[in-house]
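Data deposition worksheet. Section B asks for the primary sequence of the deposited chain exactly as it was used as input, without tags or linkers unless they were present during the calculation. Section C holds the resulting structure in token form. Section D is free text for depositor observations; keep each observation to a single sentence. Incomplete worksheets are returned to the depositor.
Section A, Depositor: J.P.
Section B:
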Amino acid sequence: MQIDKELVAASATPLVLAILTEGESYGYAILKRVRDLSDGELEWTDGMMYPLLHRLHRLGYVTTEWRVPRAGRRRRYYSITDDGRAAFAEHKRQWATVTRALGGVWGSPKLLPYSGTV
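Section C:
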């Protein structure tokens, strides 16, 4: 399934912040977590992920630290800040409202199955 880029963009910040509430992580691991959470439906690219992480850093929502793991190359790790947690809580409230509204419409007994015509 191809998910509209507007929906991907709208959900990217809260999704990354939610992942970082689970603990610090680095870019590739976040990409993999998104893919796993969506059962492979969301395939983000580096070109989307890293500008988003840089923006979250500029906003003060994440901190970064370069590390070299014992076996591997240097990686930049991202951790959520208190401001990031507050932003995540606000995004979560907003998405809950949108989800509730959509669920109310989509679950409505007044809706008929889509017939392909308007």
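Section D:
The helical segments are 5-21, 27-37, 46-58, 82-106.
DSSP finds four helices and three strands in the chain.
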